[in-house]
Give the backbone structure.
Amino acid sequence: MIDFTLPCDYICAVDVAPLAAWLDDPGCRWPEPSGPTKPQRIHQAGLPMHLVTPIMDEVLTHFGPGLMLAGFCRAVWDSPMLSRMVPGQQHGMHVDVRRADCLTRVHVPLRTNHQSLMRFEGRDSYELGVGEAWTFNTTLRHAFENLGETERVHLIFEVLADRHSGRDGGL
C-alpha cells in the first residue's frame, strides 16, 4: 500500500519501452534549458499522449487502498511532462509549489544510471530504476543530481485526489 507520508515510495513497475524509444525519434525535441541547473522539460502539449496515458493509467490503478485510508475516493493524473538531466547536472535543494488538490507527484524513469539520485534534506537518497513508478513528496526539501555519464529522463505527473465518493451516505 502506498504511504503518502513518506518522502518517496515505490508504487509499481510499468512498461516504459515504447515511450523510451520515442526519445530517439526525430519528433522528440528538447527545449533549451531555462538555466544551468534546471532540467529540460517537455510538457503535455509536446508529448505523445498515446504512449504516456497508458503508463499513468496503470500507475493510478495501484492507488486504491492508500487513497481510501487518506480519506479520498479516487485519483486522476494531471500535468504530465518529461524531465531530462544531462550528465554532471545537479539541481540543488528546493521545495516545489503544488496545487492544493495534488496528493503526490509521480516519477517514472525512462533512462537513468546508478549515479542519478533524488535526495531529501536530512533523509535518505533514492536511486530509481527504469520503469519503476514512485511517489515523490515535493513539499519536502529535495535535490536531484546526475553524476553519471548518461542522461536521466523521467516521466513526471501529478496525482490529484477527489474526496467525493458519489455514495448515498453511510459507510
